[in-house]
Write a structure and sequence with these properties.
single chain, 278 residues, alpha/beta, Rossmann fold, four-stranded antiparallel β-sheet, 31% strand, globular, binds S-adenosylmethionine, S-adenosyl-L-methionine, transferase, methyltransferase
Length: 278
């Protein structure tokens, strides 16, 4: 799906480009922070910080979004290169950079690139991070594999790739009957309440699922406006990711069932993966 990523027109980027109110109003701060807090998984940041203490502080973050992970790493004295394909998202990231005090702010480089075609001058990063399901947003097996190869190409020998992705067994692979309310918020621009409805479609033979739904905004005159959204992700199973990593030039070090080194079980919401470059 991301083979010909064209910035803001790409469905995954439209989907993740903030949330509903920011679609046409890019001044609204992006909501990854809120979404991961809502899902109870915001402590992934602590895990990434621990890994940089272990492997080294020269960090590349792939699919960085608005800096939810990169900014805390900078505050822990890491030197971070953060890459995303969405200009709108990176604009919001740059706005947040103001919160980083000088001279730490000098340790951050923000790069707009498609990670499936990643090419940076630096090739000796200690750690590459691809957090919060970002690999799944590249909804094509070969492009996911190419992204892992690109990560290996940019790491020093024995450097670490750390990523987290859904455990497919925790996802409804048959699809939801209909979108259900996911959250309700206030539109910061006009004070109206809006509800996001979300659903996944059935998984295809290529392990791709639609993620779709709509936003209903309740206007003061009693009417409702509906705006639909749609993206796709490609789920990856436990031994599949191991084989993909091996094929991309990594040795799997660990797969946990969460951010706290929990054992991976069929009930685990996600897989937290650590792999070393061979
Ligand atoms: C689920 S968000 C995760 C953001 C961030 N890593 C976090 O944890 O808050 C996925 C991000 O991947 C980016 N993305 C999707 N496909 C991409 C690609 N091919 N190259 C670079 N970035 C991409 C989107 O723009 C979005 O910011």
């Amino acid at each position: 799906m991301n083979s010909s990523i064209k910035d803001a027109s790409h469905p995954s980027i439209v989907y993740y480009d903030g949330d509903y109110p920011s679609r046409n109003q890019t001044e609204y701060p992006e909501n990854f922070d809120e979404v991961v807090t809502y899902q109870g998984i915001a402590d992934d940041v602590d895990k990434y910080i621990q890994l940089t203490a272990q492997y080294g502080k020269k960090v590349l973050e792939l699919c960085c979004g608005t800096g939810r992970i990169s900014i805390p790493l900078i505050n822990q004295d890491c030197v971070v290169t953060a890459v995303d394909a969405s200009a709108a998202i990176l604009k919001q990231f740059r706005r947040k950079v103001g919160s980083i005090p000088f001279p730490k702010s000098e340790n951050l480089s923000i790069v707009k690139q498609d990670v499936t075609q990643l090419s940076l001058d630096t090739r000796d990063f200690d750690v590459v991070i691809c957090g919060f399901n970002s690999l799944l947003c590249i909804a094509d097996f070969n492009l996911q594999l190419q992204t892992l190869r690109n990560a290996a190409d940019h790491l020093r020998p024995h450097g670490l790739l750390a990523l987290d992705i859904w455990n497919p067994l925790a996802v409804n692979l048959y699809g939801d009957i209909k979108p259900e309310p996911f959250f309700t918020r206030k539109n910061p621009h006009n004070g109206n309440t809006y509800t996001r409805f979300a659903a996944t479609g059935p998984m295809t033979i290529n392990q791709v699922q639609s993620v779709y739904g709509w936003y209903d905004e309740f206007k003061k005159d009693g009417t409702v406006t509906r705006q639909s959204y749609h993206m796709e992700w490609r789920l990856i199973f436990r031994y599949e990711i191991q084989l993909m990593l091996e094929r991309a030039g990594f040795t799997l070090k660990a797969i946990y069932g969460g951010n706290h080194n929990e054992p991976l079980t069929s009930d685990s919401l996600k897989m937290f993966i650590e792999a070393e470059k061979v």
